[in-house]
Amino acid sequence: MKVGVIGAGAWGTALGIVAARGGSDVVLWSFDGEYKSFDGVDMPGNLRITRDMAEMVDMDAWLVVTPAAFFRDTMTNARTFYNGQPIIICTKGAEPETCAFMSEILQDVIPACSDYGVLSGPQFAAEVARGVPTGSTLAANAKARAVGHEILNKLYLDDSDDVIGAEYCGVGKNAVALICGYNLVAAAGENERAMIFTRTWGEIVKMGCASGAKSETFLGLCGIGDLFLSATSETSRNFSGGMAIARGEEAIGTVEGISALRGLIARAARIGVDVPVLRDMCSKMKL
């Protein structure tokens, strides 16, 4: 299978490596020709880098791994070369300006794409690149799930058809991880940290269910699995970003939990769900 991976940051490069190890011929698109290298990990011979988006037209499937803030622009540039391929969204987040989830943007920009899904789960890119066992939820229709299993056969994948639920999990865990990092520094004690952790995740589950998500999705790999990974480890950019905010320091790198938290609050207002703890934490962090 020929696989186009759109986005060559850490996660895009790691997924490209995984797909190549699984037997696919991979073309990794990078806007600047650069990609992420991992210590001790060699790039497979059946993976190559390109700056030419036109090469995506011949691919059998796309994995889209561009940052949430650039997802719409990247998909707008890519749609000229869309040729009916299934698309698996591997970006977790919400668009800062509109609070739209990535699947909603894809439907808006490439409405002809009916076979699509979301890959979401507990995934630190460096471990995935090194071959450390990793599981994820693949939420998609049947065709996209079948393609996803073929491409990512080196990963453990749980099947789901709950795309909106997986999106809420991916966005929500970013926001909760940010809050948990902040509270590691700023909370009065561990009791308060546990209380806020539980209540914020509960508000996100409530929002998801109000939007048609399935409650069991939030208990799966894309839900509690990813939440555990991101909200308990300083390796998580969002967790360490929250710690930096609490210390009055500048957060390093891409901290999507900031726009995720703002976006969830705005989305909650639109769908009529009250999220007092998320609002309070956003205010405390002066976001």
What features would you describe in this structure?
By secondary structure, the chain is of the alpha/beta class. The protein has 2 domains: 2-161, Rossmann fold; 170-284, N-(1-d-carboxylethyl)-l-norvaline Dehydrogenase, domain 2. It is 47% helix and 13% strand. The chain has helices spanning 10-21, 71-78, 102-109, 125-130, 142-151, 163-186, 190-210, 221-230, 237-246, 256-271, 276-284, and strands at 2-6, 25-29, 47-50, 61-64, 87-89, 116-120, 135-140, 156-160. An 8-stranded mixed beta sheet has the order 3-2-1-4-5-6-7-8, sandwiched between helices. The termini are far apart.
The structural class is alpha/beta
The CATH topology label of the largest domain is Rossmann fold
Overall shape: globular
Q: Major sheet: size, sense and barrel closure?
A: 8 strands, mixed
Share in β-strands:
5-15%
- Average pLDDT reading: 96
Low-confidence stretches: none
Q: What fraction, in percent, of the residue positions are helical?
A: 40-55%
How are helices and strands ordered from N to C? EHEEEHEHEHEHEHHHHHH
Spatial arrangement of strands, main beta sheet:
3-2-1-4-5-6-7-8
Question: Any idea of the CATH class of the largest domain?
Answer: Alpha Beta
Number of E-type strands:
8
Radius of gyration: 18 Å
Question: Roughly how many Å apart are the termini?
Answer: 44 Å
The number of helices is 11
What is the CATH superfamily label of the largest domain?
Answer: NAD(P)-binding Rossmann-like Domain
CATH architecture of the largest domain: 3-Layer(aba) Sandwich
- Could you say how many structural domains there are in total? 2
